[in-house]
Records
---
Amino acid sequence: MAKKYTFACKDIGQACGFTAEDEDRNALMQKIAEHARTAHSMEIDKKLQNTVDKAIKKVEM
Ligand SMILES: [Zn+2]
C-alpha cells in the first residue's frame, strides 16, 4: 500500500498555513527545513527536528 508523509506548520505551534507532503520522509524534511528558513528564519536544530518529527503524519493512500 502506498503511503505519504504530511506536515502542517500549525502543528508545531506556528500561526502559519504552510503544509507539505511527500512520499519520502527525508525529502519532506528538506521541504520543511527550507520553509522554516525562508518563512520563519529558523534553522532546524536538534530540538526543532524532534518537534517536527513528532508532527509529521504518515498517511496510507
Ligand atoms: Zn510555517
---
Amino acid sequence: MNDDFSLSGKVAVVTGASRGLGQEFGRALARAGADLIVTSRDAADLASFCEEIAALGRRTHPLALDVRSQESIAGFGPAAIEAFGQVDILVNNAGCNVRKPAVEVTWDDWNLVLETNLRGTFFVSQALAPHMIGRRYGRVINIGSVTSVFGYAGLTPYCASRGGVKQLTMSLADDWGPHGVTVNCLAPGWFKTQQNRVLYENEAWVEYLKERIPLKRPGQPGDLAGAIVFLASDASRYMTGQTMLIDGGITTGSTKATV
Ligand SMILES: NC(=O)c1ccc[n+]([C@@H]2O[C@H](COP(=O)([O-])OP(=O)(O)OC[C@H]3O[C@@H](n4cnc5c(N)ncnc54)[C@H](OP(=O)(O)O)[C@@H]3O)[C@@H](O)[C@H]2O)c1
C-alpha cells in the first residue's frame, strides 16, 4: 500500500462507536494502523468492540461521551488527549434521527436532532482543536449524509442538521487550515443500521431505494472504509472543506430522462 494511506502511529477518536457506522469507521482506521479512542454514552457498550480492535494489535481506549451535554464534552476533551498523549484524527460520527412529517415535528424532536448532529459536531471538534492546532496536525472528519445536499420529506430536522454539518465543515476548514488541521465531511448514502432498521424491514421500500441508486444496492459493510482512511491519512493532505459522497450515486439525481 502507498505509505500515504498508512495510519501507523496515529491516534483516532471515533464518537458513537457502540454500533453501526461508527464501528465500520473504527475498524477501517485500526486496520490502516491507527490506535482508537471510542465513545458511547455508556462506555460499557464499547467493551466487545474494543476487544475486536485489540485483536488487530491496536490500542483502544473507551470513553463515555454524550455530545448533547456541555459538561460531558468538557470532560471528554482532556480525557481523550490524555489516553495516548495525542489525538491526530477525529471522526464526528455520533448522531441520531427523528423520522416524521414536518407538521408533526415537536420542539423536542428538533432540539434532539440539531443538538446531537450539529451542535455536538461543533463542540466536540472545538474540544480537540486547540490540541491539534498546537501540534500543527489534525484530521477532522464530520459525518454528513446525502441529506447534506438533498431534501427529503419526513427528515426535516435531520436534513437541516446535515446541511449544517456541510457548511460547518467549510467554515472550520477555513478557520483551522492555516494551523495544519484539515476538516472534511464524509457523506454516506443509505446503509442499513439500527438508525433506519425499520425502513429495511419493508421490502417494497428497499426495492424503491435500489431503483434510485445507480449502483443498484444500498451500502454494505466495507463500502466506506476506503473513504474514511483516505480522509484520515496524508493521502488527503491537500483537501479541506469538502463533502465526499459515498452513496452508490444516488445524489446524481435519479429521475429517468428516457422512456
Ligand atoms: N445509516 C445510514 O445510512 C447513515 C447515512 C448517513 C449518515 N449516517 C450518520 O452516521 C452516523 C452513524 O449512523 P448509524 O446508522 O450507525 O447510527 P446508529 O446505529 O443509530 O448509531 C448512532 C451512534 O451515535 C451515538 N449517539 C447517539 N446519540 C448520542 C449522543 N447524544 N451522544 C453521544 N453519542 C450518541 C450512539 O451511541 P450510544 O447510543 O451508545 O451513546 C451510536 O453509537 C450518524 O451520525 C448517522 O446520522 C448514517
